[in-house]
Amino acid sequence: MAEAQSFELLKKKRKSFRTAVTKVVNELEAELSNSDLNIDRLSELVETLSIKFEPLTLVDQPLEPLFKPEQFDGEFEITEEYREKVLLWQFRAKKKINEYLKPRVTSPSFQTTSSQSQDNIFGTLITFALKSQNTILHDSMEMTLQNG
User: Which helix (H) or strand (E) holds 109?
Assistant: First the structure.
């Protein structure tokens, strides 16, 4: 009985965290589509999204092994959709911030180098996020198999 209550409590927490993340993503999307872009607001939203997303990932970890096998694939897919949505909007916002902050230089060689550096940084960030995600998934699956 206690495990069922714990499961339901984790699902309620996850629902609240997902709602909070979706709200920030929607605000971020609206700010990016605004013709009068506010870079400070954009930066705040990126930071807020990171802060709101962290507890969601922490709730997802202990919740995954509690799902029945027939539920797991669907739940895991939704979890991945949230992760991808957060990474995508963080990337778009950071790219826009960097474009805004980029020095206005007429030298083509400097612009190419600067652009390549940004691409490398974003690529590294996304690679790191995906590797972290795979590690979490592997650990979760390993725990499920050990308990199972």
Answer: helix 108-147
- Confirm if 46 and 24 have CB atoms less than 8 A apart: no
Instruction: Using DSSP, state whether 1 is helix, strand or coil.
Output: coil
What tokens appear for 3 in the block? 């495990």
CA distances for 23 relative to 108, 123, 129, angstroms: 40, 26, 22
Q: Classify 107 as helix, strand or coil.
A: coil
Structure confidence by residue, pLDDT tens digits, 115-148: 556 666 766 666 666 666 666 655 655 555 555 5
- Nearest Cα neighbor of 28 from 18, 16, 38 is 38
Looking at residue 5, its pLDDT comes to 83
Please state, as a whole number, how many other Cβ atoms lie within 10 Å of the Cβ of residue 17.
Answer: 20
* Distance separating alpha carbons of residues 97 and 132, to the nearest angstrom: 25
**pLDDT band at residue 102 under the 50/70/90 scheme:** confident
Mean pLDDT of the chain: 83
